Amino acid sequence: MRIDVHGTVAEGFEGVREEFAAVLAGERDDPGAQLVVYRHGRRVVDLWGGDGIDGDSLTTLYSIAKGAAHLVVALLVQEGVLDLDREVAAYWPEFGVHGKDRLTLGELLEHRAGLVGDAEQAFTTEELADDRIIAARLAQREPLWEPGTAWGYHAFVIGALTGEVVRRVTGRSIQELYEERIRVPYGLDYYLGLPAEAEKRWVDVQPLLPTPEEAALLKERAAAPDSLRGIAFGAHGPEPIDLVAFGNHPRVKALGPTSSGGVGNARGVAGMYAAAISTVDGRPPLLTPATAALFAELRTPGGPDLVVGSENHFARGFEHTPGLYPVLDIGTFGHSGATGSLGFADPANGIAYAYTRRRFSFPSGVGAAPENGRLAESVLRAAASL
């Protein structure tokens, strides 16, 4: 289909615009997409295309929130406020029951807690919007595997668990610290809790429109409600979680759950990752090279992820992005979102990248859309030519 591409690219990045146009032209249904790239702290790509979308449009970006949340955690580790080798229960005593007392903060960040959801009483959408509710209930639950011995995607809950550690130590929520230390100083259009004045720029998440063949494949691959994946994604309750409805829910937008509910655009996400690794507007990088490397390191080699079956999935709090796209430098770190969106920082090349989609891609619901590989490769090719 024909979708006009709007926006600008710096000299040398014309090929990125061409690749973005080709991605949009290959879509069967309008994705409502944005692509923004920084190089060494300067915005060099700012593109968008699709009906009802411009560069300022905001939408729910799901698990990209995990990247924002764990950038806060990385800062606190860098400053010595948190210790990756310390037990979670040392910060949060109520957590240390049912064999969870030996789990370290580092292991929690690696999705090793065995608390992917509440197997006894499924969370509702309203509950999943509130990190405090998630943390309080899961602290009392038995883990679904022995903590630290395996790993699996804590899709809706990881930010609530790490966030409660942060709250116990600092007295502040991750949302508050992100707002004060990262979003406001850099003027980022990415929010963990959408303010009322930004609501007029928000556009709703749109569902995948599968072909009959795609629909049959999705049905075949659907997780059993009582499986680890079913529990992690809320399929085991009387009203299974609908991801589209979740992203469009007013309570999710307002509270900004740190696992799944950040709202923003590609400018905001790319700007956040640029601030993490580069000098931006005269401000030094948020992370030292040593901290960036520590949080980018692959922590789940091999497989499988007990929830989604992937291999080489997680760094500390972030996804190990080179495991998704081997073209990326080994020190790259970031996180994808359910519609197929992706944000990452590549310190070696000074690149911060964000691709956002309003419409769910196929396959649907977990991980970055496949076109990110093409787009990221075009960005690295352009950067290498300068």
Give a brief outline of the structure:
InterPro entries: Beta-lactam-related, Beta-lactam/transpept-like, Beta-lactamase/esterase. It contains 16 helices and nine strands.
Would you kindly provide a written description of the structure presented here, covering whatever features stand out?
This is Beta-lactamase. Pfam families: Beta-lactamase. Residues 28-362 form the Beta-lactamase-related domain. Helix 2 crosses helix 8 (174-186) and helix 6 crosses helix 7 (158-170). The strands form two sheets. A six-stranded antiparallel sheet has the order 1-3-2-9-8-7, with helices on both faces. It has a three-stranded antiparallel sheet with strand order 4-6-5. By secondary structure, the protein is of the alpha+beta class. It has helices spanning 14-25, 64-78, 88-91, 105-109, 125-128, 131-139, 158-170, 174-186, 212-221, 228-232, 243-248, 250-255, 266-277, 289-296, 321-324, 371-384, and strands spanning 6-9, 33-39, 42-49, 59-60, 190-191, 263-264, 333-336, 342-346, 351-357. The chain contains 16 helices and nine strands. The chain is globular. Helices cover 36% and strands 11% of the residues.
